Structure formats: C-alpha cells, structure tokens
Amino acid sequence: MIAPLILYLDVPFTTFRESHAREMGKTYPVPPPATVYGMLLSLVGETDVYRHCGVELAIAMLSSPKKSQILRQMRRFKNADFSHLENIIPCYQEILSNLKCLIWVRSDGEKIQPSLRERIQLAFDHPELVRRFGCLFLGESYQFD
Length: 145
Description:
Blueprint: E1 5-14, H1 33-44, E2 56-61, E3 66-75, E4 88-106, H2 116-125
Antiparallel strand pairs: 1-4, 2-4, 3-4
Helix pairs in contact: 1-2
C-alpha cells in the first residue's frame, strides 16, 4: 500500500451551488467530493471523469468558512437577443470565504496507471509536463481585484 498524498487547499472565495437551489444561489458549507474530484482531474489535465474510478478521497476542514450574500446579475433566456433586458435579473448568491481544508488522495483501488495520486505528484514535481486548459478552480471560485 502506497501512502496517500495530502494536499492543502486555501480558497479565499468560493461557492458550491446546491443543486436544488433556484432563485437564491445557496451554497453547501463544504466542498462536495465530486467537486474536489473534478478539481483534481483539472489539476492533472484529465477530461475523462471515469479515468480514475476507484480513487479514494478524504476531506478535512481546517476552517469554518464565513457565509455571506452578494447580489449579482444573472442571465435567463426569455428573449432570443442575448443582451435584451428581459434576460437580465438580479439574484442573491451565497459566498464562502476563507475555506481551508486538507485533501487525502489514495489510489490503491485504481486499475489505471499512472494513478491519480501519481499524476498529481507529477504535476507538482514537473508542472511543465501537464497539458491542461483554464484556471484551477474549486467550485465557483472568485478572484476580486
């Protein structure tokens, strides 16, 4: 058995939108495992969500993120003209700030090689070898200037 890889995450602002939330953008208080898995796949440049089936993840919260609400502009498509005022509505959304957690990644149950744990380690040791696109996000992360 190979020792698990432990990652430290520090996310200033994020939201994990609840699937059943409609008008009010509510957030889960902790990152859902599927969201963490997606972030790890993005980290290594993997687009196939089934490639690392069998990987085991554990999440330990190191902070109690503060929850606040923002008013943001959302788009609905009631009119075919994308910029039409009918498509723009204000919407409240919950935001978490100061999220800190540890993620354990263990790949003993994976059948594929290299394992996700090995690919994450490689991404940190040799980031120039990773072919990925976009920024790395956990949930819907925010960067305010």
